[in-house]
Amino acid sequence: MTPSNDRPQTRIATRLAFLAAGFGLASWAPLVPFAKARLGVDDGALGLLLLCLGVGSVLAMALTGIASARYGARPVIILGGLLMAAALPFLAVAATPLSLGLVLFVFGAGLGSLDVAMNIHAVDVEKDAPKPLMSGFHALFSIGGFAGAAFVTALLSLGVVPVICATVGAVGVAAAILFAWPRLLKAKGAQDAPLFAVPHGAVLLLAVLAAATFLAEGAILDWSALLITDKGLVALSQGGIGYIVFSIAMTTGRLVGDHITASLGDFRTLFWGGLVALGGFALLLLVPVAPIAIGGFVLIGLGASNIVPVLFRLAGAQTVMPSGLAIAAITTTGYAGILVGPAGIGFVAHATGLTAAFWILAALMGLVPLFARTVTRAASVR
Does the structure show a pLDDT above 50 at 206? Predict the structure, then answer.
């Protein structure tokens, strides 16, 4: 008899993978100003260097789907996590733009590999579970992000040099991956799995919805401060409050998301989550009263919090293409939305204004409730 994939040990391993990914990525964020000062580059050059991380992630994601379909998620999680950990200290010492760009590419490749493989592993564990688990797994990524940023920031505040901070962060990532290693699922993928499959049907629609959701998240990260300060809702020094409350709401929503999904089902979670997010955009863009407008970020975070976990679950349940390749396609499309989207928002904002650009984001989020029934029927779950 084949043992269940859903065991306490496999749940712990999955949570540690998500935690390590969030912690490792966030450990780099406080080091960015130090890298800029060390290299003496301007904002434009720094932006191009940071793009190397995204390019490495997206390229690795496509390859990870192939590797995971052939060999299972376990080896990819281990290699991706350890690659992230190995690259992190070098981000704090790279002395030229070329060397930093190369290390960022490698760091991004590790992150992208880990991201796809841990979601594939999460789908495999959840399939044998009596209730949803995906939102809780994704909550650990958010918690890891908070912990990584806070930990490295605290060390820097105490005067610890960046390379030591990065090394300590790398040790934390590596420790989590090594502890998870023997607890990860040992089952291998199918040796006759195709090396490539063009996303189509339900998978293509799932990828579009993921891209729209990731784009909204990325735009709030990059543009929310400018939006609320330009509208005169808060002072310049308080511009970050929008993303802070959005992040808290999203993490909270994911911590209770498995219970919500178990109660409502995937269709209602997508449908009502999308509508709540749309309501948040409406408050943010229409109400000139600061506390109410800021409350829009809360609704956007709560509404969007469980959309991506449900989309990953549906990708694992559909049968039009191997689940590993489907999850890789959704993750790659989502990250492409994060990479390209904020720049696109900038172009639209330049032409029509930032408020109009955010209305376009709201319209894209409207695709989620619009197609919620279609994607859940196509995946034939819950």
Answer: yes
Closest to 180 in 3D by CA, of 224, 130, 121: 121
User: Can you give the pLDDT at residue 381?
Assistant: 46
Task: Return the top range by mean pLDDT from 1-15, 59-73, 174-188.
Answer: 174-188
Cβ neighbours of 161 (radius 10 Å): 13
Tokens of 74: 């376990």
**What is the token pair recorded at 85?**
């950990």
Q: Are 123 and 325 in contact, with CB atoms under 8 Å apart?
A: no
Instruction: State residue 2's pLDDT score.
Output: 63
* Residue whose C-alpha is closest to residue 287's, from 362, 232, 216: 232
| Phi-psi label, residue 329: left if phi above 0, alpha if psi -120 to 50, beta otherwise | alpha
CB 180 within 8 A of CB 13: yes
The rounded Cα 183 to chain-centroid distance in angstroms is: 23
- How far is the C-alpha of 185 from the C-alpha of 5, rounded, in Å? 7
Count Cβ atoms within 10 A of the Cβ of residue 59 and give its class: 0-12 exposed, 13-18 middle, 19 or more buried.
middle
Residue pointed to by tokens 């955009």: 281
Q: Is 321 left (phi over 0), alpha (psi -120 to 50) or beta?
A: beta
CB 88 within 8 A of CB 151: no
- Which CA distances in Å does 194 have to 198, 214, 314? 11, 28, 20
Q: What is the Cα–Cα distance from 136 to 77, expressed in whole angstroms?
A: 18
Are 254 and 139 in contact, with CB atoms under 8 Å apart?
yes
Helix (H) or strand (E) holding 170: helix 162-180
**Euclidean distance between CA atoms 141 and 175, whole angstroms:** 16
Spell out the domains of the chain, with CATH numbers in brackets. 8-183 (1.20.1250.20), 202-379 (1.20.1250.20)
The answer to whether 129 and 77 have CB atoms below 8 angstroms apart is: no
The answer for 216, left when phi > 0, alpha when psi is -120 to 50, beta otherwise, is alpha
Q: Which two tokens stand for residue 378?
A: 């196509």
Cα–Cα distance between 117 and 132 in angstroms, integer?
19
Q: What is the rounded end-to-end Cα distance, in angstroms, of the chain?
A: 26
Confidence of residue 28 (pLDDT cuts 50, 70, 90): confident
